[in-house]
Design goal:
The protein is α/β, with parallel strands linked by helices. It has nine helices and 16 strands. The chain has a six-stranded mixed beta sheet with strand order 4-3-2-1-11-12, with helices on one face. A six-stranded mixed beta sheet has the order 5-6-7-8-10-9. A hairpin with a 2-residue loop joins strand 5 and strand 6. The radius of gyration is 27 Å and the shape is elongated.
Amino acid sequence: MSVRFIHTADWQLGMTRHFLSEEAQARFSQARIDAIRTVGRIAHETGAAFVVVSGDVFETNRVDPRTVRRALEALSGVPVPVFLLPGNHDPLDAASVFRSPTFLRGKPAHVTVLEDTTPHEVAPGIEVIGAPWMSKRPLRDLVADTCAGLEPAPGTIRVLVAHGATDDLIALDDPAAIRLATAEAAIADGRVAYIALGDRHSTTEVGSSGRIRYAGAPEPTDYDELDPGNVLLVEIGDDGSCAVAKRPTATWRFARERFELDGQTGIDDLAAWLDAQPAKDRTIIKLTLVGTISLSADARLQELLEHNRDLFAAVEEWERHMDLVVRPDDDDFADLSLTGFARTTVDELRDRAAADGVDAQVARDALALLVRFGTAKGGAA
């Protein structure tokens, strides 16, 4: 007996990001719905028998009903059975989205919520078992509890669907941590054939058996994820072998970069890097800028950033890592032909800008506006 299935997790449907504009947020949300259709397409193309979603299907139990309806509509097009596991974002508590009228009315017949540890027979000799989160803070290892209730079943392939961090990935003594030694023992003695994990958004293999994996999120959610944007195609063979292959699904990117700016040279490097980024409308970037630049260089920098904010999904500046100093120099005002009162005012502002405190920043901002205005007017004053 053999089986092939899709392991995915952490869809986070309904996720919002504060740095996205309303228009970009709508596209970001749509991409997560589209990922469901991508999963269905991969299942069809690979001949997968079913799909397991290892928790955090929704970003929260308070997700907008419109998102639930759109998710169920996308799920209706997946051509194989789909098993959804409640995770820490959408636990099966009294307010569970999986128990809402919107979900229950629209749930396709081939979609099953893993509400307890009862085995679900997909086909003769093939079972899916869930370890659902019943609250946001379980006080025990749900994988260990589920495996403790199983006996080895020769001739049966069991896929355990679970959610949470394994004890090798977290430093804290979390009672809900999944003990890898216990999980590996359940695989070794034949109680389960594969443990499909969710919670970690980077595709990750844990343990030594090759049968305990995090699928990762099908679309990235943050900058720190190492290998997001995949689903896993798992095949358990007649001989008990287990082969796992990544299938890319991501259409969005998070990118983070640091630039040392020194006059126009550093800004040229930043401009070239921004220009080289693919799929700008689906790329979220965070910049760290350090160095010292003149007012005219800062004017060009701000124009560059404003231009690219219209092209990218979002352009963030990593404030706590920023160390960019803007200091006026003589070249900033050389083309402005300032005389009289205007010249005297600029000299006073330059003296204030060289000091510290709020007044210094106000003076620098005023001088920057003057340089930008003068540049836009072709140097007339």
